Amino acid sequence: MAQSAPGFWTAKPLTELTPDEWESLCDDCAKCCLHRFEDEETQEIFFTNVCCRYLDQESCRCTDYPNRSVNLPDCVTVTLEVLQDPYWLPATCAYRLLAEGKSLPEWHPLVSGEQHTVFDSGNSVCGRVISELEADNLEHHMIDWIS
């Protein structure tokens, strides 16, 4: 992987990021891997503690990332097009934050220089979720600890 300049996300618009830079924006919080509900009238998002079956709950990484869209056709790949209206992404998602003209939080690994700060700050789902293979009625698994 090519080394990016420190702070590249502040110096370049999203449209100019390299593929490696784009991927490095993901902090591996895995919030986007949770099942959620949407109020269609208000577009309010309600998260559950139920994660995709492909999420490794120890590392908060997809166990088959290259094939995620084949394995789960409704797994959304974050693209510039998706970021035209990112309301459904978690409020702490780096892609959403940058698309909205906001800064990355101090716990983001690109800012802190350490991957563990995502977990230490309480922004990781690791240790707080169950697999969809274990879940019953999703409505019984709604949570309020995601921002």
TrEMBL record:
<dbReference type="Pfam" id="PF03692">
    <property type="entry name" value="CxxCxxCC"/>
</dbReference>
<dbReference type="InterPro" id="IPR005358">
    <property type="entry name" value="Puta_zinc/iron-chelating_dom"/>
</dbReference>
<protein>
    <recommendedName>
        <fullName>UPF0260 protein BOW51_10990</fullName>
    </recommendedName>
</protein>
<comment type="similarity">
    <text>Belongs to the UPF0260 family.</text>
</comment>
<dbReference type="InterPro" id="IPR008228">
    <property type="entry name" value="UCP006173"/>
</dbReference>
